[in-house]
Amino acid sequence: MADFLTRRHGTWHFVRRVPTEFAAFDARGIIRHSTKIRIADDRNGRRASGVADKLNRELEAFWKAKLGNAFGDEVSRYELARQQVRSLGFELLEMPRLIALPPQQTVDRLEALAAKGLHEDPAACAAVLGRVKEPVPPLSRLQQEHEALVGDELKGMSAEQLRIWRTSRIRSAQQFVDLVGDKPVTEVTESDGLKYVDWWRDRVVSGEANAKTANRDIGQLSRMLKDLRIRRRYKYPDIFKDLRLRGETEKSRIPFDNEFIKEQFLGGGLNGLNEDARCVLYVMIETGLRPSEIVNLQEHTIHLDAPIPYVEILPDGRHLKTKDSERQIPLVGVALAAMKLRPQGFPRYRDKSSSMSGTLNKYLKENGLRPTCEHTVYSLRHSFKDRLVAAEAPDSLIDSLMGHRSGKSKYGKGPALELKHKFLERIAFACPARL
């Protein structure tokens, strides 16, 4: 905050000019606040910088709130104008479109205003004669405006899935605003896109981020801008076209060795873990299910009394990763024993898979249960697949158990529960005496 600090009468002061985009609703021009820290007591301004930083955050939050309210007021005025014009039998048009119409249509509008006694009403005249512009949202509202457009995509998401979906897009939009300013979305330029991609490139080069993370973020921002442009008929360029970072690599997680699973996970290494989390990990070992799939099992998807005990993965109030994720998985070995302890599922962690994964990974790290830093709880899915490959299971059966898309045309119902059970029995670990 050194840029906003100045000396005045022996005291550090915070001074900042109101940015152009906020000048319409903050007429102060230049804002001054005393930090109440004497220069003699803080020669380098370090303490004063901390105070200035807090003042600046509060000021920017105030401006953004005002901007959001200002846009809401604009939308309200625009909708009122639209209703007023429609009540006269016309559509709300802006001046360029109106003057492109035959002159008689403008005359018709003038006559309608006079007939209704509105020819002396400034707001009515402005609306009917094309002087009301459609409000354009600022970039700070990009995520909210985009979410309103894609509600159909979000239908069926759980609260946690929606939180994760929303948080990443809010972060992308805010980062973009911080770099290029809070301009109307229709004023974005190709230079803005280059600036944002270069910012990510610098972070990748410095090792602060990787190309995959950068491209995912750029892709989300690009999708929001594209959807808004198409659905609202806005005119601005595809600012991220051909700008994805190269060098993205898909790093596969390293699987746990079978002996490690047997000696550590099934040999007492998990005894210090809470029982719910321990049971989740046991189920994962023998089924290859994703942690999010396990914690969202419910009583009606857990079939312990069936001839072949199994669980089924259904949408059940949340999105599945892919259509192929909907499947039935037989329970064998330690997974069957664990589910018998939790016949109603895992209410403690339901729709909290991030919390569950964090708990498991933290425990593995703190108890020396990660042979390398690249081993995570998700590595158990890779171990599960390797065991199936070693048992010479058909590719179609492996894809069905993993919930993967095979990439081939789908015929028939897929592998039967009996066939899945046959191969899972082959690779099952001996169940420890104490779970």
* Structural class determined from secondary elements: mainly alpha
Order of helices and strands: EEEHHHHHHHHHHHHEEEHHHHH
Largest sheet: 3 strands, antiparallel
Architecture of the largest domain, according to CATH? Orthogonal Bundle
Strand content: 5-15%
Main-sheet strand order equals 1-2-3
How many domains? The number is: 3
What is the terminal separation in angstroms?
Answer: 56 Å
Task: Write the CATH fold name of the largest domain.
Answer: hpI Integrase, Chain A
Low-confidence regions? none
- The CATH homologous superfamily of the largest domain is termed Intergrase catalytic core
**Overall average residue pLDDT:** 88
Text of the CATH class of the largest domain: Mainly Alpha
Shape: extended
Helix content: 40-55%
What radius of gyration results from the CA coordinates?
A: 30 Å
- Quickly count the helices: 17
* Secondary structure: number of strands: 6
